[in-house]
Amino acid sequence: MKPVSPAHPPQRPYPTSHDAHAVAGNKSLADLLTLLGGHGPPTPEIREAAARVALGHRRVTAGQPLVEMGMPAMAMYFVDTGTFKIARSDRDGYEQVLAFAGRGEALGYDALCADQHPTSAIALEDSTVYVIPKSSLALIRRSVPAFELELQRAACVALARSNDLVDIMAAVSSEVRLARFLLQLSRQMSTKGLSPRRFLLRMGRRDIASMLGVALATVSRSFSALAAARLLYVNDRDVEILDIDALREYARCTRKAMEESVASGACRLDAPLRADHGAHSVAGLQA
Description:
Blueprint: E1 22-28, H1 29-36, H2 44-51, E2 54-60, E3 65-67, E4 75-81, E5 84-89, E6 95-101, E7 106-107, E8 120-123, E9 127-133, H3 137-143, H4 146-169, H5 174-191, E10 198-200, H6 205-212, H7 216-228, E11 232-235, E12 238-241, H8 244-251, H9 258-264
Antiparallel strand pairs: 1-2, 2-9, 3-8, 4-7, 4-9, 5-6, 5-8, 10-12, 11-12
């Protein structure tokens, strides 16, 4: 994801069994460590050692899977550019979105100790990833110990994703679920050095609805409610959080729906809810 501009409203890649991905070229572990940068830029000594480790670099077009649920776990990946949704599919074809991953985040880490991927990772836009074969991980970790710290970070992020989903689903109100989801995106933007208040949603409302566990139409109504309360500005997929403190306060309302909260005086919003507010339009929010 990238923030909305203030001027506007708010070596060969490792083969997989699904080869709909175009080769984007070859890079080194040094390039990956520079991208991640979680522990500062690599020292000259680390960079020299890492530059000798070639990594695959794969392009995945929008709508295509990088990995599919049940596919043999042969590699892990780090997102270089673009955004992916992580999802599970039931036998009847229902897709449950579990998380979204952007630049610098790991994919397929949860499959390293298994034979198959437990989830699918599908590109929401044209994206690129670093490819690290499962069979090469031990050698890479011995050759460049600094990479071990990045694997630990990837494990922490994967655990945080699970906790984030639990936090969202604990709320009764769809508006509160959406508020928590947007605050999670805000924190992710902040950790990447981007604006925590203004960003472009890379996912459509259908994927958001799946992650929140609500109907598609409910997502639009929830955006409208938060916009009418002057907490958000929404223009298609451009989102600006107008009052982040008030949004955080409202997101703490776990057990009550928005209407119940306002009626009882609990978690009261500063502005009354209105069905329509011209300055905060959600018209055209894409599925």
